[in-house]
């Protein structure tokens, strides 16, 4: 890892740790309370799913367990803890994107005794507490599924831009980190049923100057490489002019807070959790 990127990641991690330690994913004294979500801007409604290897038999298995967790109230409890009840889907519907072929992915995971879950630092879905333990909505959701499966859950931080490759090469067994269901991921992996709704928002520090997408034309706008935020930024005629990619959403917020960027495009769920209104 390059030194510049290392410092950025460490700094972002310290800020996140400071504002999230000891809370359930939301903070009234966030390190990003001086930032603002641009009102009235919703850059595409999307849904979150869990990605497994192409041809994996894990999609049907995890979908069946997910349906149980929605029915018995487990998902409501997790969502309430991380203040995500309004963002959950009303009814969980199993995916049809599953066509098991070849050797069983479940047998491979069961024989290891653990399922390696690919994550990034994305509060309130997956983030680390003061002791370095991965917590968050998705972290607890994955652990609840792991308990039903009878396997341990191991979290591994990945490069979001190469998540499909990490999955294919068995560096991880699934991507479970507020992953937007896109055609690209559906082509690269088998994806579970949608469990949460989301959309992209624009976050700024100077809310008096930047009041519209037009006001950001030619300004420095950042988003996580390979994310739905990057796709939204590149698709907008105003945001794309000064667009630059960063390694993670935490870095995007840090860039805006420090003044290195004028705005960032990130998931509403993360912005709602960390950013002052």
What would you say this structure looks like, in words?
With about 280 residues, the protein is an alpha/beta fold. The chain has two domains: about 25-45 and about 200-275, D-Maltodextrin-Binding Protein, domain 2 (3-Layer(aba) Sandwich), CATH 3.40.190; about 45-195, Periplasmic binding protein-like II (D-Maltodextrin-Binding Protein, domain 2), CATH 3.40.190.10. The protein is globular. The chain is about 35% helix and about 20% strand.
Question: Outline of this structure?
Answer:
This protein is an alpha/beta fold.
Topology:
Blueprint lengths: L2 H18 L15 E2 L7 E8 L5 H14 L2 H8 L23 H8 L1 E6 L7 E2 L5 E2 L1 H13 L2 E6 L5 H6 L5 E7 L2 H6 L1 E2 L4 E9 L16 E4 L3 H8 L7 E4 L2 H10 L4 E5 H7 L3
Parallel strand pairs: 3-6, 3-7, 10-11, 10-12
Antiparallel strand pairs: 1-9, 2-7, 2-8, 2-9, 4-5, 9-12
Number of strands: 12
Overall geometry: globular
What's the rounded overall pLDDT mean?
89
Helical content band: 25-40%
Q: Which second-level CATH architecture of the largest domain applies?
A: 3-Layer(aba) Sandwich
Determine the number of helices (DSSP H or I, runs of at least 4 residues). 10
- How many domain modules? 2
Gyration radius, to the nearest Å?
18 Å
The major sheet is characterized as:
10 strands, mixed
Q: Structural class of the secondary structure composition? A: alpha/beta
Q: Assembly type of the shown chains?
A: single chain
Relevant CATH superfamily of the largest domain = Periplasmic binding protein-like II
Query: Which CATH C-level class of the largest domain is it?
Result: Alpha Beta
Poorly predicted runs are 1-28
H and E string:
HEEHHHEEEHEHEHEEEHEHEH
Distance between the termini: 34 Å
- What is the CATH topology of the largest domain? D-Maltodextrin-Binding Protein, domain 2
Binned strand content: 15-25%
């Amino acid at each position: 890892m390059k030194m510049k990127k290392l410092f950025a990641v460490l700094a972002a991690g310290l800020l996140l740790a400071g504002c999230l330690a000891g809370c359930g994913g939301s903070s009234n004294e966030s390190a990003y309370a001086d930032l603002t979500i641009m009102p009235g801007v919703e850059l595409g409604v999307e849904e979150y799913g869990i990605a497994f290897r192409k041809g994996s038999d894990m999609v049907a298995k995890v979908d069946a367990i997910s349906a149980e967790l929605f029915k018995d109230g487990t998902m409501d409890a997790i969502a309430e803890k991380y203040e995500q009840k309004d963002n959950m889907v009303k009814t969980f519907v199993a995916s049809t994107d599953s066509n098991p072929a070849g050797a069983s992915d479940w047998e491979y995971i069961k024989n290891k005794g653990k399922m390696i879950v690919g994550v990034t630092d994305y509060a309130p879905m997956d983030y680390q507490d003061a002791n370095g333990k991965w917590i968050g909505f998705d972290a607890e959701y994955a652990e609840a599924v792991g308990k039903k499966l009878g396997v341990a859950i191991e979290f591994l931080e990945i490069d979001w831009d190469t998540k499909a490759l990490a999955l294919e090469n068995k560096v991880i067994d699934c991507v479970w980190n507020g992953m937007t269901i896109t055609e690209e991921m559906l082509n690269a992996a088998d994806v579970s049923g949608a469990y949460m709704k989301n959309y992209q928002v624009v976050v700024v520090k100077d809310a008096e100057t930047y009041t519209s997408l037009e006001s950001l034309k030619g300004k420095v706008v950042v988003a996580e490489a390979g994310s739905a935020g990057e796709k939204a930024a590149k698709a907008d005629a105003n945001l794309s002019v000064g667009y630059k990619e960063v390694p993670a959403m935490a870095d995007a917020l840090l860039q805006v807070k420090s003044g290195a960027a004028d705005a960032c495009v990130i998931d509403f769920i993360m912005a709602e959790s960390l950013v002052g209104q």
